[in-house]
Amino acid sequence: xxxxxxxxxxxxxxxxxxxxxxxxxxxxxxxxxxxxxxxxxxxxxxxxxxxxxxxxxxxxxxxxxxxxxxxxxxxxxxxxxxxxxxxxxxxxxxxxxxxxxxxxxxxxxxxxxxxxx
Length: 117
What we know:
Elements: E1 5-7, E2 10-13, E3 18-23, H1 26-29, E4 33-39, E5 45-51, E6 57-59, E7 67-72, E8 77-82, E9 91-98, E10 106-107, E11 111-116
Parallel strand pairs: 2-11
Antiparallel strand pairs: 1-3, 3-8, 4-5, 4-9, 5-6, 7-8, 9-10, 9-11
């Protein structure tokens, strides 16, 4: 079992920023794609952003230009920098790891992001 540990969620006003972090086991981090999924209230989980082991990135249309995914292989950590947040960005954000491009083999427990209007 791969343990993924997220941090950085919270409450922020619309237009603000947050950075999510996720630590993965060092034994696999460099070899695996990482991602962030979001589950908004009453909706299914959907991919927000993903980054391959080689650094290729993929974003959902709704966050492109506002969110940035990055990875630090030295720290076994993936980040999601979220800027210009909107109320519709509210949801539980899950860190994932797995095969590109879906990146959904392993899941963290999630961290709640609430954007107030």
